Amino acid sequence: MKKYITYFPGCIDSQNKIRIEYIFEKLGFEAGLVSEWNCCAAPPSHYKPDFFNKVVMPLRNLGISQQKGGNFLYSGCQVCVRHINEAVKIINSDSMFKNQADYSLTPFNANLKEAKAGSTGAVHLLDIIADPEIESRLLNNVSRNITGDSILLYAGCNPDNENINRFKNILNFLGAEVSLYGECCGGGKLRNTTPVHSKRIENANTVDRFFKLINEKADETGSDYILAICSMCEKNINDGIEISDLDIFAPIIGLTEFLGFLFGLKGCGDLIAGGDNGNNSDALKEYCL
Question: With CB atoms 3.0 to 4.6 Å apart as the test, which of 16, 113, 146, 233 could cross-link to 228 if both were Cys?
Answer without folding.
Answer: 233
